[in-house]
Amino acid sequence: MGNDVRAAAPGAPLIRLQSVCKSFVLPGKQMFQAVDDVSLSIARGEVFGLVGKSGAGKSTLMRLINLLERPDSGAVYVGDDDLTRLSKRALRDMRQTIGMIFQQFNLLQNATVFDNVAFPLKIHGVRDKDAVARRVRECLDIVGLSEKADSYPAQLSGGQKQRVAIARALAPRPAVLLCDEPTSALDPETTRAVLATLRDINAKLGVTIVIVTHELSVVRALCTQVAVVEEGKVVEQFALSDPPDTPRRTQLGRELGALRKARAIDPESGDDAGLTAHDRLDASDLAVDTELEPPRV
Ligand SMILES: Nc1ncnc2c1ncn2[C@@H]1O[C@H](COP(=O)(O)OP(=O)(O)OP(=O)(O)O)[C@@H](O)[C@H]1O
To answer: How far is ligand 1, taken at its centre, from the CA of residue 135, in Å?
Structure first.
Protein backbone atom coordinates (compact mmCIF):
# COMPACT_ATOMS: atom_id res chain seq x y z
CA MET A 1 0.00 0.00 0.00
CA GLY A 2 2.53 2.61 1.15
CA ASN A 3 5.00 1.35 -1.44
CA ASP A 4 2.43 1.95 -4.23
CA VAL A 5 2.28 5.56 -3.10
CA ARG A 6 6.06 5.92 -3.01
CA ALA A 7 6.32 4.38 -6.49
CA ALA A 8 3.70 6.64 -8.13
CA ALA A 9 4.97 8.16 -11.39
CA PRO A 10 5.90 11.86 -11.34
CA GLY A 11 2.92 13.90 -12.54
CA ALA A 12 0.38 11.16 -11.70
CA PRO A 13 -2.38 12.19 -9.27
CA LEU A 14 -1.16 11.30 -5.78
CA ILE A 15 -3.66 13.02 -3.49
CA ARG A 16 -7.33 13.40 -4.43
CA LEU A 17 -9.94 15.00 -2.23
CA GLN A 18 -13.45 14.31 -3.49
CA SER A 19 -16.27 16.54 -2.21
CA VAL A 20 -14.86 16.69 1.31
CA CYS A 21 -16.76 18.54 4.02
CA LYS A 22 -15.68 19.22 7.59
CA SER A 23 -17.65 21.09 10.21
CA PHE A 24 -16.96 21.80 13.85
CA VAL A 25 -19.37 22.17 16.71
CA LEU A 26 -18.97 25.59 18.28
CA PRO A 27 -19.79 26.45 21.88
CA GLY A 28 -23.57 26.79 21.95
CA LYS A 29 -23.83 23.71 19.68
CA GLN A 30 -23.80 25.79 16.50
CA MET A 31 -22.17 24.04 13.51
CA PHE A 32 -19.35 25.78 11.64
CA GLN A 33 -18.51 24.58 8.13
CA ALA A 34 -14.70 24.85 7.99
CA VAL A 35 -14.31 22.93 4.69
CA ASP A 36 -17.21 23.02 2.29
CA ASP A 37 -17.43 20.48 -0.53
CA VAL A 38 -13.81 20.70 -1.72
CA SER A 39 -12.45 18.58 -4.55
CA LEU A 40 -8.74 18.80 -5.28
CA SER A 41 -6.10 16.78 -7.07
CA ILE A 42 -2.38 17.03 -6.28
CA ALA A 43 0.11 15.36 -8.59
CA ARG A 44 3.21 13.51 -7.47
CA GLY A 45 6.21 15.85 -7.40
CA GLU A 46 4.12 19.02 -7.02
CA VAL A 47 4.75 21.72 -4.41
CA PHE A 48 1.15 22.66 -3.75
CA GLY A 49 0.35 25.85 -1.82
CA LEU A 50 -2.85 26.48 0.10
CA VAL A 51 -3.32 30.21 0.64
CA GLY A 52 -6.10 32.35 2.01
CA LYS A 53 -7.06 34.63 4.86
CA SER A 54 -6.87 33.60 8.49
CA GLY A 55 -9.76 31.27 9.30
CA ALA A 56 -10.41 30.40 5.64
CA GLY A 57 -9.97 26.69 6.35
CA LYS A 58 -6.48 26.06 4.94
CA SER A 59 -5.08 24.06 7.88
CA THR A 60 -8.25 22.03 8.25
CA LEU A 61 -8.14 21.22 4.54
CA MET A 62 -4.54 20.08 4.81
CA ARG A 63 -5.20 18.04 7.95
CA LEU A 64 -7.86 16.13 6.00
CA ILE A 65 -5.09 14.74 3.77
CA ASN A 66 -3.64 12.58 6.55
CA LEU A 67 -6.95 12.32 8.38
CA LEU A 68 -5.76 14.32 11.38
CA GLU A 69 -9.24 15.69 10.72
CA ARG A 70 -11.75 13.11 9.53
CA PRO A 71 -14.16 14.48 6.91
CA ASP A 72 -17.90 14.45 7.65
CA SER A 73 -18.40 13.33 4.05
CA GLY A 74 -16.37 12.83 0.90
CA ALA A 75 -13.30 10.75 0.10
CA VAL A 76 -9.56 11.31 0.65
CA TYR A 77 -7.42 9.27 -1.74
CA VAL A 78 -3.67 8.96 -1.32
CA GLY A 79 -2.55 6.76 -4.19
CA ASP A 80 -5.31 4.23 -4.77
CA ASP A 81 -6.57 4.13 -1.19
CA ASP A 82 -9.48 6.08 0.23
CA LEU A 83 -8.08 6.78 3.71
CA THR A 84 -11.59 7.18 5.14
CA ARG A 85 -12.17 3.47 4.46
CA LEU A 86 -8.93 2.08 5.91
CA SER A 87 -8.77 0.16 9.17
CA LYS A 88 -6.90 1.82 12.05
CA ARG A 89 -3.89 -0.37 11.39
CA ALA A 90 -3.85 0.28 7.62
CA LEU A 91 -4.23 4.01 8.28
CA ARG A 92 -1.28 3.93 10.67
CA ASP A 93 0.82 2.21 7.99
CA MET A 94 -0.32 4.68 5.34
CA ARG A 95 0.65 7.61 7.57
CA GLN A 96 4.28 6.54 7.25
CA THR A 97 4.08 7.84 3.71
CA ILE A 98 2.76 11.26 4.83
CA GLY A 99 5.08 13.38 6.96
CA MET A 100 4.04 16.65 8.57
CA ILE A 101 5.74 19.74 9.99
CA PHE A 102 4.18 22.58 11.96
CA GLN A 103 4.68 26.28 12.65
CA GLN A 104 5.77 25.61 16.25
CA PHE A 105 7.96 22.60 15.32
CA ASN A 106 6.30 20.22 17.86
CA LEU A 107 9.57 18.58 18.94
CA LEU A 108 9.90 16.41 22.03
CA GLN A 109 11.62 18.83 24.42
CA ASN A 110 13.10 16.18 26.70
CA ALA A 111 14.60 14.14 23.87
CA THR A 112 17.81 14.80 21.94
CA VAL A 113 17.77 15.71 18.27
CA PHE A 114 18.78 12.10 17.53
CA ASP A 115 15.88 10.69 19.55
CA ASN A 116 13.40 13.15 18.01
CA VAL A 117 14.33 11.94 14.52
CA ALA A 118 14.38 8.28 15.61
CA PHE A 119 10.94 8.60 17.20
CA PRO A 120 8.74 7.90 14.14
CA LEU A 121 10.93 4.95 13.16
CA LYS A 122 10.43 3.39 16.60
CA ILE A 123 6.70 4.14 16.49
CA HIS A 124 6.53 2.35 13.15
CA GLY A 125 8.26 -0.69 14.56
CA VAL A 126 11.84 -0.40 13.28
CA ARG A 127 13.69 -2.44 15.91
CA ASP A 128 17.15 -2.69 14.36
CA LYS A 129 19.18 -0.07 16.28
CA ASP A 130 21.84 0.19 13.57
CA ALA A 131 19.20 0.75 10.90
CA VAL A 132 17.60 3.46 13.05
CA ALA A 133 20.96 5.14 13.68
CA ARG A 134 21.82 5.01 9.97
CA ARG A 135 18.54 6.55 8.92
CA VAL A 136 18.71 9.25 11.61
CA ARG A 137 22.20 10.19 10.43
CA GLU A 138 21.03 10.29 6.80
CA CYS A 139 18.12 12.57 7.66
CA LEU A 140 20.23 14.91 9.81
CA ASP A 141 22.68 15.06 6.93
CA ILE A 142 19.89 16.01 4.51
CA VAL A 143 18.94 19.00 6.68
CA GLY A 144 22.57 19.89 7.49
CA LEU A 145 22.40 19.19 11.22
CA SER A 146 24.64 16.16 11.63
CA GLU A 147 26.66 17.83 14.36
CA LYS A 148 23.57 18.55 16.50
CA ALA A 149 22.53 14.94 17.12
CA ASP A 150 23.20 15.14 20.86
CA SER A 151 21.68 18.60 21.41
CA TYR A 152 18.27 19.22 22.94
CA PRO A 153 15.64 21.38 21.18
CA ALA A 154 16.09 24.18 23.74
CA GLN A 155 19.72 24.52 22.58
CA LEU A 156 18.71 25.16 18.95
CA SER A 157 17.61 28.23 16.97
CA GLY A 158 14.12 28.33 15.43
CA GLY A 159 15.47 27.43 12.00
CA GLN A 160 17.44 24.51 13.42
CA LYS A 161 14.34 23.27 15.26
CA GLN A 162 12.36 23.34 12.02
CA ARG A 163 15.17 21.41 10.31
CA VAL A 164 15.00 18.75 13.02
CA ALA A 165 11.24 18.58 12.45
CA ILE A 166 11.87 18.13 8.72
CA ALA A 167 14.43 15.39 9.41
CA ARG A 168 11.93 13.67 11.72
CA ALA A 169 9.22 13.86 9.05
CA LEU A 170 11.59 12.43 6.43
CA ALA A 171 12.79 9.51 8.55
CA PRO A 172 10.05 7.03 7.44
CA ARG A 173 10.70 7.97 3.77
CA PRO A 174 7.41 9.72 3.11
CA ALA A 175 6.02 10.33 -0.37
CA VAL A 176 4.23 13.46 0.87
CA LEU A 177 5.29 16.21 3.27
CA LEU A 178 2.53 18.39 4.72
CA CYS A 179 3.81 21.77 5.95
CA ASP A 180 1.53 23.94 8.11
CA GLU A 181 2.93 27.49 8.11
CA PRO A 182 6.49 26.11 8.40
CA THR A 183 8.25 29.48 8.23
CA SER A 184 5.79 31.75 10.05
CA ALA A 185 7.83 31.66 13.26
CA LEU A 186 11.12 32.34 11.45
CA ASP A 187 12.97 35.47 10.37
CA PRO A 188 13.45 36.08 6.61
CA GLU A 189 17.03 34.79 6.50
CA THR A 190 16.13 31.56 8.29
CA THR A 191 13.04 31.27 6.12
CA ARG A 192 15.29 31.31 3.06
CA ALA A 193 17.32 28.41 4.40
CA VAL A 194 14.30 26.32 5.39
CA LEU A 195 12.68 26.94 1.99
CA ALA A 196 15.91 25.89 0.33
CA THR A 197 15.82 22.62 2.23
CA LEU A 198 12.17 22.00 1.33
CA ARG A 199 12.81 22.77 -2.31
CA ASP A 200 15.75 20.40 -2.39
CA ILE A 201 13.74 17.64 -0.75
CA ASN A 202 11.10 18.06 -3.45
CA ALA A 203 13.58 18.27 -6.32
CA LYS A 204 16.03 15.57 -5.29
CA LEU A 205 13.91 13.14 -3.30
CA GLY A 206 10.73 13.63 -5.33
CA VAL A 207 8.71 14.23 -2.16
CA THR A 208 5.37 15.91 -2.95
CA ILE A 209 4.89 18.95 -0.72
CA VAL A 210 1.64 20.55 0.39
CA ILE A 211 2.19 23.83 2.20
CA VAL A 212 -0.20 26.12 4.04
CA THR A 213 1.12 29.65 4.17
CA HIS A 214 -0.08 33.21 4.38
CA GLU A 215 3.20 34.48 2.88
CA LEU A 216 2.86 34.99 -0.87
CA SER A 217 6.64 35.24 -1.11
CA VAL A 218 6.86 31.67 0.18
CA VAL A 219 4.38 30.54 -2.47
CA ARG A 220 6.32 32.29 -5.17
CA ALA A 221 9.64 30.89 -4.04
CA LEU A 222 8.52 27.31 -3.59
CA CYS A 223 5.17 26.35 -5.13
CA THR A 224 4.34 24.90 -8.52
CA GLN A 225 0.56 25.02 -7.95
CA VAL A 226 -1.56 27.15 -5.66
CA ALA A 227 -5.15 26.93 -4.45
CA VAL A 228 -6.85 29.97 -2.94
CA VAL A 229 -9.17 29.07 -0.06
CA GLU A 230 -12.07 31.32 0.99
CA GLU A 231 -14.72 30.39 3.54
CA GLY A 232 -13.94 26.69 3.33
CA LYS A 233 -13.97 26.50 -0.47
CA VAL A 234 -11.22 26.40 -3.09
CA VAL A 235 -12.17 29.41 -5.18
CA GLU A 236 -9.22 29.44 -7.56
CA GLN A 237 -6.37 27.10 -8.49
CA PHE A 238 -3.54 27.70 -10.91
CA ALA A 239 0.03 26.81 -11.85
CA LEU A 240 2.78 29.23 -10.88
CA SER A 241 4.26 28.63 -14.34
CA ASP A 242 1.25 30.37 -15.98
CA PRO A 243 2.13 33.75 -17.55
CA PRO A 244 2.04 36.31 -14.69
CA ASP A 245 -0.62 38.46 -16.39
CA THR A 246 -3.11 35.59 -16.68
CA PRO A 247 -6.47 37.00 -15.43
CA ARG A 248 -7.30 35.84 -11.89
CA ARG A 249 -10.58 35.74 -9.99
CA THR A 250 -9.20 36.44 -6.53
CA GLN A 251 -7.20 39.26 -5.01
CA LEU A 252 -4.53 36.79 -3.81
CA GLY A 253 -4.29 35.36 -7.32
CA ARG A 254 -3.76 38.87 -8.71
CA GLU A 255 -1.19 39.70 -6.03
CA LEU A 256 0.79 36.58 -6.87
CA GLY A 257 0.72 37.49 -10.56
CA ALA A 258 1.96 41.00 -9.71
CA LEU A 259 4.82 39.58 -7.61
CA ARG A 260 5.91 37.36 -10.49
CA LYS A 261 5.54 40.17 -13.02
CA ALA A 262 7.72 42.53 -10.96
CA ARG A 263 10.35 39.84 -10.81
CA ALA A 264 10.12 39.13 -14.57
CA ILE A 265 10.56 42.84 -15.43
CA ASP A 266 13.51 43.33 -13.11
CA PRO A 267 14.99 40.15 -11.67
CA GLU A 268 17.38 42.18 -9.51
CA SER A 269 14.70 44.54 -8.28
CA GLY A 270 14.08 42.87 -4.91
CA ASP A 271 12.97 45.51 -2.41
CA ASP A 272 12.47 48.11 -5.13
CA ALA A 273 9.60 46.04 -6.41
CA GLY A 274 8.14 45.79 -2.93
CA LEU A 275 9.48 42.32 -2.36
CA THR A 276 10.79 40.97 0.93
CA ALA A 277 14.16 39.29 1.36
CA HIS A 278 12.89 35.82 0.58
CA ASP A 279 11.08 37.01 -2.56
CA ARG A 280 14.51 37.17 -4.08
CA LEU A 281 15.17 33.46 -3.77
CA ASP A 282 16.30 31.83 -6.95
CA ALA A 283 17.55 28.41 -7.91
CA SER A 284 21.14 29.06 -6.82
CA ASP A 285 19.99 30.48 -3.47
CA LEU A 286 18.06 27.31 -2.91
CA ALA A 287 20.80 24.82 -3.69
CA VAL A 288 22.16 22.88 -0.74
CA ASP A 289 25.23 20.80 -1.16
CA THR A 290 24.09 17.47 0.26
CA GLU A 291 23.34 14.85 -2.38
CA LEU A 292 20.03 13.36 -1.40
CA GLU A 293 19.06 9.78 -2.07
CA PRO A 294 15.64 9.14 -3.57
CA PRO A 295 13.20 7.35 -1.25
CA ARG A 296 13.65 3.60 -1.38
CA VAL A 297 10.58 1.58 -2.24
N1 LIG B 1 -11.15 21.92 16.37
C2 LIG B 1 -11.88 22.99 16.03
N3 LIG B 1 -13.02 23.29 16.68
C4 LIG B 1 -13.78 24.36 16.33
N5 LIG B 1 -13.47 25.20 15.31
C6 LIG B 1 -12.34 24.93 14.61
C7 LIG B 1 -11.49 23.83 14.94
N8 LIG B 1 -10.44 23.85 14.06
C9 LIG B 1 -10.64 24.91 13.25
N10 LIG B 1 -11.77 25.55 13.58
C11 LIG B 1 -12.32 26.73 12.92
O12 LIG B 1 -12.39 26.47 11.53
C13 LIG B 1 -12.03 27.63 10.78
C14 LIG B 1 -10.89 27.29 9.85
O15 LIG B 1 -9.72 27.07 10.63
P16 LIG B 1 -8.32 26.76 9.97
O17 LIG B 1 -7.32 26.67 11.06
O18 LIG B 1 -8.48 25.64 9.03
O19 LIG B 1 -8.13 28.11 9.12
P20 LIG B 1 -6.80 28.68 8.45
O21 LIG B 1 -7.21 29.19 7.12
O22 LIG B 1 -5.73 27.67 8.49
O23 LIG B 1 -6.50 29.89 9.42
P24 LIG B 1 -5.09 30.44 10.00
O25 LIG B 1 -4.33 30.96 8.82
O26 LIG B 1 -5.51 31.52 10.96
O27 LIG B 1 -4.41 29.27 10.68
C28 LIG B 1 -11.69 28.70 11.81
O29 LIG B 1 -12.81 29.54 11.98
C30 LIG B 1 -11.39 27.93 13.06
O31 LIG B 1 -11.71 28.67 14.21
So the answer is: 35
